[in-house]
Write a structure and sequence with these properties.
With 378 residues, the protein is mostly helical. It is 59% helix and 4% strand. A hairpin with a 4-residue loop joins strand 1 and strand 2. It starts with 8 loop residues before the first strand and ends with a helix.
Length: 378
C-alpha cells in the first residue's frame, strides 16, 4: 500500500448515524514523499542516542520511574485530569481529598505501564496484554463501570452529546474483533518490509480510529507506543514518551488523525509522528545529560557529610526514587530513628537540596526541587 494511494475507509449507515469503518493496515507500506525518509532517519538516530543513555546512566531504573510518572501524568492530563508532577510522586496520604480522584488515575497509569513491561518479558505484544493493561488503568477510577479489560460491545463516540452530533463515530462494535486481529498481525507480520517507526505510527492511528474500549482509548493508544518500541528492541527501557509533545501540540495531533480519516492523508500523520519522536528523544537525551550533571554535584555534596555520608548517600538514592517525601518516609525507608531522619532532612534543606512544600505546617513534606525541575522542563 502506497501512502499516496491510501483510502482510509468508508462511512457505514447505522441507525440514525454513520460509523467509520477503517481499512485493514497489515500491508507492505511504501511512500514517495522524501520528507518521510529524512524524518525516519532522524527519528531512528535520535531514538538510538536516547537508548544509549539508558545503558550508561548509573541506577537508570530510578530515573526511568520518573519518566513513567511524567508520561502517566501528561497522558492523563490530555484526557482532562488535573494533577501536577509534584503530586504524582507523592503518597496518597499527602494528596488533598478533592484531588485524589485525579491522583488515582495517574497512579493507575503507572501501575498499568509497569505491569505491561513485566508481561513483555515473557509474552509478545498482543491484544490480550492491552486488555490486561486497560483493566488496571480503569480499576477503582471514574471509568471503572466502563468494562475495564474488555473490548466494547456497544457503540461509542468522540465529541458531542450523542451519536447524532458526535465529532467522530468509530466502527460498529461487531467489526472490532476483525480489525484488532489485523492490527495485531501488522505488529508481527514478518513477510512485509516496513520500518518499526512507520508501523507504530500507523498502529497508533489505527488503534485510535478503532477506539476499541468504552473509555481509556487515548491513554492505552499512547502507552502502546513505548511498549511496541521495547518489544521490537528499539528501546531497552521505556525512555521515550510522546505525551508531552502531543499535549503541547494537541490541536495538530487531533487534526492529523482526523485528516487521515477525512482526506486519506496518512503521510501527514506519519510526518507529525516522526517529528514528535525526533523532538521527544532529543529532550529525553538532554534530561539524561542533566541527570548525570546533577548526580555528580550531589555525590560531591554527600562526601561533605563525613561520618554521616552513608546516611546522606542513602537519602540521595531515596530522593531519586521518591523526590517528594516526609520525615516518616525517610525514617521507614532508611531504617533510622525519627530524630536522625529529621536532622538529615534539615541539613538537606539548609543546603537548598530539599524545599518544604508550602502550606503544610502540620504534615511537613519536602521536595527534591532541582530533580523535579528536570522533568518539568520536558
Amino acid at each position: 500500500m502506497q501512502f499516496e494511494d491510501f483510502q482510509s475507509g468508508t462511512w457505514i449507515q447505522q441507525y440514525k448515524y454513520k460509523s467509520f469503518l477503517p481499512v485493514p493496515v497489515s500491508y507492505e507500506w511504501t511512500w514517495q514523499d522524501p520528507r518521510i525518509n529524512v524524518l525516519l532517519e532522524q527519528a531512528t538516530q535520535a531514538l538510538g542516542e536516547l537508548n544509549a543513555y539508558t545503558r550508561i546512566v548509573p541506577d537508570v531504573d530510578l530515573y526511568i520511574k520518573m519518566h513513567i510518572t511524567l508520561e502517566a501524568n501528561t497522558s492523563s492530563g490530555i484526557e482532562g485530569t488535573n494533577t501536577t508532577i509534584d503530586e504524582a510522586v507523592m503518597d496518597e496520604r499527602s494528596i488533598l481529598p478533592e484531588r485524589r480522584d485525579d491522583w488515582h488515575e495517574v497512579r493507575n497509569y503507572i501501575n498499568a505501564m509497569n505491569n505491561a513491561l513485566e508481561q513483555l518479558v515473557r509474552l509478545p505484544l498482543s491484544m490480550r496484554l492491552l486488555r490486561d493493561t486497560h483493566e488496571i488503568l480503569l480499576k477503582g477510577t471514574r471509568g471503572e463501570h466502563k468494562s475495564p479489560g474488555e473490548f466494547r460491545r456497544s457503540q461509542n463516540w468522540i465529541g458531542g452529546a450523542s451519536l447524532t452530533d458526535a465529532a467522530f463515530v468509530p466502527p460498529h462494535h461487531t467489526v472490532i474483533d476483525d480489525l484488532l486481529t489485523d492490527l495485531e498481525k501488522f505488529w508481527h507480520n514478518e513477510s512485509i518490509a516496513v520500518p518499526h517507526l512507520i508501523r507504530i505510527a500507523i498502529s497508533h492511528y489505527q488503534f485510535e480510529t478503532i477506539h476499541p474500549f468504552l473509555d481509556g482509548n487515548g491513554r492505552i493508544g499512547r502507552l502502546l507506543i513505548p511498549l511496541y518500541l521495547i518489544s521490537n528492541c528499539l528501546l531497552d527501557k521505556p525512555s521515550l514518551y510522546l505525551s508531552a509533545h502531543l499535549f503541547k501540540n494537541r490541536g495538530i495531533y487531533y487534526d492529523s488523525l482526523t485528516r487521515v480519516r477525512e482526506s486519506n492523508d496518512i503521510g501527514q500523520w506519519v510526518r507529525f509522528f516522526l517529528t514528535a519522536v525526533v523532538e521527544t528523544a532529543g529532550k529525553g537525551r538532554k534530561t539524561f545529560e542533566s541527570i548525570l550533571t546533577l548526580r555528580q554535584e550531589m555525590d560531591q555534596f554527600v562526601v561533605s557529610f563525613g561520618r554521616r555520608a552513608a546516611d546522606a548517600h542513602n537519602l540521595m538514592l531515596l530522593l531519586y526514587n521518591k523526590p517528594v517525601l516526609d520525615v516518616r518516609s525517610v525514617q521507614d525507608e532508611l531504617g533510622i530513628s525519627y530524630e536522625r531522619a529529621n536532622r538529615l532532612i534539615a541539613t538537606f534543606t539548609e543546603n537548598d537540596i530539599l524545599a518544604q512544600v508550602p502550606n503544610r505546617q502540620r504534615d511537613r513534606i519536602f521536595m527534591f526541587k532541582r530533580y523535579l525541575r528536570l522533568f518539568k522542563d520536558e
